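Q: Protein A?
A:
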Amino acid sequence: MEDIMSGEMEILFSLAGRMHVLLRREINRIIDVEWMCANAAYAKEVIKLARTVDSDELHKLADRVEQVHPKFLRAEHLADYITPMAESKYMTTLR
């Protein structure tokens, strides 16, 4: 399991590095590559920024980062985190 995570982090780091280079070239914006790998909220903001730029390569990189970032919740894992709500006894009738 650790090897898989390590491999994902290497891929993520290289994707973030590539995004750093392209963002610097396209809009003269510098990002923190290490922080992008460590912090999902920062990564999401960088992805939003990358999608505002008219660059197909940046858009593809943003999609790929979303796929490999270990701190993003994936659709297949969402069911584990969403608890079903108990039905309220007052939802359909008055007391």
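Q: Protein B?
A:
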Amino acid sequence: MIAAAWARGYGDVESLRPIVADLMLRFSLFQRDVDRVIIGMRKVEWIKRNVESVSKGPLTADEYRWLQRMRMRAFTLTKQPWWHRIRRLF
């Protein structure tokens, strides 16, 4: 999903990682049918980021649409031969 966002020009990979992680965590946590989410947290920095994400609450409609677009983009990137995916990046 990060590669899809990068391919669409939303930023570089390193700046997108925390954004996508935040959105995906919030998406997972605030689903009606989900009562537990297992998250790997080995560093204090990661714990702080996760607490900040949870404190933001559920995704806004815009954030949800952004995630959906990136998911669809990631799906189309993976369904094509690798040379088609590379060609799109240039």
